[in-house]
Amino acid sequence: MPAQTLTATLHVNGREHALPDLDPRTTLLDALRESLGLTGTKKGCGLGHCGACTVLADGRRILSCMALAALYEGREITTIEGLAPEGGAARPHPLQQAFVERDAFQCGYCTPGQIMSAAGLIDEGRTGSPEEIREFMSGNLCRCGAYANIVAAVADVARTPLVPGAREPEQGRS
Amino acid sequence: MTTPTPRTPVPVHSPREAPSPVHSPREAPPSPASSTPGGVGSSPRRPDGTLKVTGEFAYSSDMWMDDMLWGATLRSPHPHARIRGIDVTGAVRMPGVHAVLTHEDVPGEKRYGLEYRDQPVLAFGKVRYRGEPVAIVAADHPETARRALDRVRVDYEVLEPVSDPVRAAFDPDCPLVHEAGEDLPPAHPAHHRSGNRVRYQPVRTGAFADGATAAEVRALADVVVTGEYQVGMQDQAFLGPESGLAVPAEDGGVDLHIATQWLHVDQSQIAPCLGLPPEKVRLTLAGVGGAFGAREDMSMQVHACMLALRTGRPVKIVYNREESFHGHVHRHPARLRYEHGATRDGRLVYATAEIVLDGGAYASTTAAVVGVASSLGLGPYEIPHARVDAYGVYTTNPPCGAMRGFGAVQACFCYESQLDRLAAELGLHPVELRIRNAMSEGSRTATGQRVDMPLPMADMLRRAREMPMPPERAAAGPVDVRALPGGVANTSRGEGVRRGVGYGVGLKNLCFSEGFDDYSTARVRLEVVGGEPAVQVHTAAAEVGQGLVTIKGQIARTELGVERVTVLPSDTRVGSAGSSSASRQSYMTGGAVRAACLAVRARVFELVRAAGLVGDDHPDELLGLAGGKVVSGARGVLVSLADLLGASAVEETREFRHRATEMLDPTTGQGASHTQFGMCVHRAVVDVDVDLGLVKVVALDAVQDVGRVLHPQQLAGQIQGGSAQGLGLALMEEIQVSGSVIRNPSFTDYLIPTILDVPPMRIEVLEHPDPHAPYGLRGAGEPPTLSSTPAIVAAVRAATGRPLSRIPVRPEDIVGIERD
Prior knowledge:
- The structure holds two protein chains of two kinds.
- By secondary structure, chain A is of the alpha+beta class.
- Chain A has two domains: about 5-85, Beta-grasp domain (Ubiquitin-like (UB roll)), CATH 3.10.20.30; about 95-160, [2Fe-2S]-binding domain (DNA polymerase, domain 1), CATH 1.10.150.120.
- Helix content of chain A is about 30%, strand content about 15%.
- Chain B is α+β, with helices and mostly antiparallel strands.
- Chain B folds into three domains: about 1-60 and about 520-655, Aldehyde oxidase/xanthine dehydrogenase, molybdopterin binding domain (Aldehyde Oxidoreductase, domain 4); about 65-160 and about 240-290 and about 295-325, Aldehyde Oxidoreductase, domain 3 (Alpha-Beta Complex), CATH 3.90.1170.50; about 410-510 and about 670-815, Aldehyde oxidase/xanthine dehydrogenase, molybdopterin binding domain (Aldehyde Oxidoreductase, domain 4), CATH 3.30.365.10.
- Chain B is built from 18 helices and 34 strands.
- In chain B, α13 links the parallel β23 (about 530-540) and β24 (about 565).
- In chain B, α16 (about 710-730) crosses α17.
- The longest helix of chain B has 26 residues, at about 585-610.
- Chains A and B meet through α2, α3, α4 and α5 of A and α1 and α16 of B.
């Protein structure tokens, strides 16, 4: 155990969580998963390469595996569990719904990160075209290769104009 | 004792139809949709989908118990070394450490393995690859466990690694990775194991079967092309690392919650190592974050159970990404030498292939990979005289085993490259040459197996060629850097960008081959819940993202005419479902669910007759189930299931087997070794920056015959995903190994395709039913992984004029920089 611990308070999904005895080296990801039991956020690589750990901090996308929990005191953290205002499987967020309807995942391990990234992307206004969605979703790996459906799901929610004749949105639909 | 975070049963209520993502050509027979909503042929939502998008789905790494300990694994820093001694005292004394175990603590069998039990649970005598587990620790915090590993002292005598698979295969003076006798289980006599060879399989047809030499057969051809090829080591790179939670039970057994591809084969390996009967080792499938073959072998299963049994506490082990690269098997890297001869008018006369597959330190599935590489090594072509020699060898490199399309992927890159070289020599279009030599129904493979199912290869090739091309690159005007190879990282203005087009086709065996007793088990229960008929489906099959939970529900709805279906969690309380591999689960577990449903149906009809609802005047009338009611073809609704069943339930369990297959003859390689064949054709269009060595895949379009579409949307996902992994092998994915050491065990340096690398795909699906398979279906997950790689490399060759005989293609191969 570390020689020194500290106490931090995290604001996650609209609730305050006091973390006594926090090892200052604890990442935000580990704090969410192991201290708060919010296991919806995933650890894929631990080095900021795969995007599975994406959460929002004050509405901006961050990689929680590359963030120290203690530095996020006072920031409003949103995880996949808190994306839908009323939460849970009963009333999913439109992005969550769109991912289901477009079958934008297979194993689903990258999906919470993809959805949080998409939520940030839409707020950033980077959804003008399927190409733009691709460019700004490129930090989130999907090993099952559901990329075409991820683009479609994000475009559905962002109401991205699907250019007539463009191959993106029309692909996969007869 | 509390139970771990449960994986809740997956209810499948009110399926909603999704837009069909598949282009079905008009000529193909339509997929007859089930009359029950959400049945076979429609696209109901994944029953686990909402849990996955809300973060509530419990993957194996999400399991939690309040009193659990954390396990960690000490791994060998050397690829090849003798262990002189292990001293654990420093680790045992650390506060917070509850157990430190070595090979001496393995309660039962000290080795396990899928085909040969040659892999130590914990190393003893020697270590044979870098990263081999040597000791395990359980502690109250993961960091404590990891620090304790540093206190374990292992005295190694370092040995020379055996890194060169070709030397391992052919040099009698090469040091042995496994000393014969003392630490190897006996080999199957047909596998020709000797020295470092795990298996050697020859195949001979035509003049080669009569003993003709290559020179004699070569004289029959007008044109000859030869090629030497290399395939790098690909990683499955599932995003959810290896993890599991073992819970000691009051009966002295253990309950393991684990992400795996095959619960029962894990159980059959774990129980002997623990010295327990199988019924005391109970497995439940935890959420699986991707598999692609890497979870067919075990990783931390026995370790977690050993620690749990020793400490009497639940033990969780989770690998990090670097450990994952060392903790599972990879795709066999291969060296291959091919020769093809043809007549001037483009008829193949003969072909030879010598294939060396690097199995690494332990056998894993190497023997089966050799079986596929030898039998399908020349691909889907009619070739009168064929000679294949396939070798799988032990080295001290990382162990290799299953990855999507195993054995066939490596060969497909080579035979397709050969066909392209031959087409160039003959001045023929690559598609035309392929059509002239295409196999079809009734053809025989190089192993003499008659293809007794539709194989519309020529038609598929024509369709791929006729698909609309993507727009040409603009010759002038402003350059959108995002559209250039390398995207925003491209430093040019596109001056060096050239476009190329390439084709690929591959032949894959589906289901298990070579005489394996391949079966699946399903239990189906029909009862009335809340006044409505409801079905429960229970199997041990692993949902790994392929969507099998959806398919099981669809089949139950179709066969029982009941909309409300619940798929129970997969566990070992029901019989084996076999592996979620070899594209086999829709066929096998789908077949088992269907068989169990038909048995339930028959029981229901018996009840109908027993109730006197079938009158003497209608003794032979046809009965059916629809809309939760028993219906007669002549008289309509006879009775609702709710009224018929009341408080009673009808439950049936069935095993389903595919037809038997044969072993390959050990000297001629002849035999009907495969259950079913799958085929995909790809056309790739690429832009290559020939100055910078960068590639952008502009289009990657596919034609695949799947026999019968069960779920159009999920099928498209399988084709897209398989194609993407083939793209990765073509252009970027390689575990770089030198001196038997992995140099790039992270996603910084091991690149997998991003959303920018994988283009939108046009997909045409054909449905020519296989008369031997349930619903006529054909496994779909693997074939796209074969053909996408050679199609992309052919397109890069067309753009650059480079020979490109090695995958993945590297920037320096494109630019033409020599490597030492």
